[in-house]
Design brief:
This protein has about 130 residues and is mainly β. It has one helix and eight strands; from the N terminus they run βαβββββββ. The radius of gyration is 15 Å and the shape is globular. One of its GO terms (molecular function) is DNA binding.
């Protein structure tokens, strides 16, 4: 394993909305592309999902049935690789309609926004 410390500085901040039925992970990637953020951190979020699918440590997925699976917390980053491909890695805690709490990485393409989803992104400018 290679370890290191990346140096850089924080750039612009974007406050944006992801529309209903748009995937959470794909929506964050799209927002970064629209704003020209090559790398970014999620600094805040508020909203709910129709249903949620989280990755498990064993490689499987956990499906959380809605409607209205609430996001309790969301953290993550967006990175652009050498080919220009952008990928968001988002991890969070959600509460199902019965109030049970679940956590883990969100599976891209499987987490549709319920009504609206507000997110704050901060651009990262590596040296």
């Amino acid at each position: 394993m290679t370890e290191g410390v990346e140096t850089g500085r924080m750039g612009r901040v974007a406050y944006a909305r992801i529309a209903p039925n748009e995937d959470l992970v794909v929506g964050v990637e799209k927002l970064c592309l629209e704003r020209g953020f090559r790398h970014a951190f999620v600094r805040g979020a508020l909203g709910s999902l129709v249903d949620a699918v989280l990755a498990r440590a064993d490689g499987g997925h956990q499906q959380i049935a809605g409607p209205a699976v609430e996001i309790v917390s969301l953290a993550g980053e967006v990175r652009t690789d050498a080919t220009g491909a952008i990928a968001a890695r988002l991890t969070g805690v959600v509460a199902d309609p019965e109030g049970r709490v679940h956590g883990g990485p969100f599976v891209a393409g499987a987490n549709p926004v319920c009504m609206t989803f507000e997110v704050t992104l901060e651009e990262w400018l590596p040296d």
